[in-house]
Amino acid sequence: MIDTFVLVIATVVAAATPLLLAATGELVVERAGVLNLGVEGMMLIGAVTGFAVTIASGHASLGIPAAALAGAATALVFAVLTLTLMANQVATGLALTIFGIGLSALMGASYVGTPVAPLPKLHLPGLSDLAVVGPLLFGHDALVYLSVALTIAVAWFLKHSHAGLVLRAVGESAESAHSIGHPVIAVRYLACLFGGAMAGLGGAFLSLSYTPMWMEGMTAGRGWIALALVVFGAWRPWRVLAGAYLFGGVTILELHVQGANGIGLPPQVFSMAPYLATVAVLTVISAGKWRGRLNAPASLGKPFRPSV
C-alpha cells in the first residue's frame, strides 16, 4: 500500500513538472504585458531539439540546454513579430503553435520510436533510502528539482528584486514605465526569451524523462494547460506551482480510472478528463466572487510603440 502511494505521488510529480516549467515561463511573459499563445509549439521544438542533441552527443547535459535555447529562439521569432513589427499577439502566438507542431514533426521524423536512456534520478546515500520520504523527496531527476527552484526564484524575483518590480510595472502600464525611463521593449524581449527557454525545458522533460523517446505531438495539449494554469494561479508563482501539481494529479487519476474502467466507456472519454477539468476550473474562477481575484496585468496583450 505504501509503495503504491509513493509510486502514485512520484508519477504526479513527473506529470506536473512540464506544466510547471512552461507555466512559470509564461507567467513571467504575461507579467511583462505580453500574451504568447505559442507555448505548445515552443515545448514541441524544445522536446525534439533536446532529444536530437542527446541522441547525437550521448549526453543529456547537452540536450537540456539545447532545448532551452531552441525554445528561446522560437520565442525570439514571436518577439520580433509582435514587439518590433507590431503583429497581433494572439494571431502570432497561434501561428507559432502551428509552426512548432509542423517543424517538430519534420525535425523528429527520423527519431520516431527511438528510445533514449531516461534522465538519472537523484540518489543521496542515506537520504534516498529512507522509507516513503526518501523516494518522495530525493528520488527525482534534475529537471524536477530545477522546476521547483525556478518557481521559487521567479517568486522572489517578481516580489523582491528591482528588475522584477520594473517588469511588473511594464506589465501594468507600459506607457507609465516608459515615461520614467524604463526600457519597455527590452524588458518584454527578455521576458519572452525566458518564457521560451522554460517552455523548451518543459518539452525536454517530456522527451528525455517522462516519455524517454520522441513522438510527434507528444505534448498532447500541455502547452494549453500551462496557459490556463497562469490564469488559474492568478499570475502568482506559488498558485501556479499548486495548480501544476493539481492538474498533474488529475492527469494521473485519469490514467488510473481508465485502467480500472469497468463500465465500458471508450478510453477517449477518460483522456478528455484533464482538459475538461481545465475548462471547468477556468469557468468557475472567471465568474462570481472569484473573478476579482484574477488580477491580470493591466497591459496584457496590448501593443506598445515607444514615442520618438
Report on this model:
It is built from 13 helices and no strands. With about 300 residues, it is mostly helical. The radius of gyration is 20 Å and the shape is globular. It has one domain: ABC transporter involved in vitamin B12 uptake, BtuC. InterPro entries: ABC_transp_permease. It comes from Chelatococcus albus. Keywords: Cell membrane, Membrane, Transmembrane, Transmembrane helix. It is found in: Cell membrane.
CATH class: Mainly Alpha
| CATH fold-level assignment | ABC transporter involved in vitamin B12 uptake, BtuC
What is the string of helix and strand elements?
HHHHHHHHHHHHH
In the CATH hierarchy, the architecture is Orthogonal Bundle
Structural class: mainly alpha
Rg (C-alpha, Å): 20 Å
Question: How would the global form be characterised?
Answer: globular
Helix share, percent: 55-70%
Q: What's the end-to-end separation, in Å?
A: 67 Å
Q: Helix count? A: 13
Q: Mean pLDDT, as a whole number?
A: 87
Largest sheet, if any?
A: none
Question: Could you name the ranges where pLDDT drops below 50 across 5 or more consecutive residues?
Answer: none
